[in-house]
Design goal:
Elements (H helix, E strand, L loop, with lengths): L2 H10 L11 H9 L5 E6 L19 E9 L5 E9 L16
């Protein structure tokens, strides 16, 4: 049995959640077979300018719905998303594309 089959079997069982931390390679593998239900991202207030992408070129397009967002006293932003299936696509042409509340 391979790891993805094992994780799918564990996910089907009742009980606690399965978490992964800091492994974009594992996350992409799990996204590609539909084994991720929720994504939690921590965004730091810094521009690095280089480094490995969280989701590399050719990753499975995945739709996310924001569940919550909090900012820590130190400026980290904690986002929690629900995976909602395929990603919808549109074109962003500027701030006028963002609906006002």
């Amino acid at each position: 049995m391979n790891i993805l089959d094992t994780l799918a079997e564990l996910k089907a069982r009742p009980g606690r959640e399965i978490q992964i931390h800091g492994s974009s390679v594992l996350a992409e593998s799990l996204f590609s077979v539909g084994l991720i239900d929720e994504v939690r991202l921590v965004v730091a207030p810094v521009v690095v300018g280089s480094g490995r992408r969280l989701f590399p070129e050719g990753s499975t397009p995945t739709g996310l719905r924001l569940l919550s967002s909090k900012t820590t006293p130190g400026g980290l932003v904690l986002h929690k998303y629900q995976v909602v299936g395929s990603a919808s696509h549109s074109t962003y042409t500027g701030v006028q594309d963002v609906p006002s509340r």
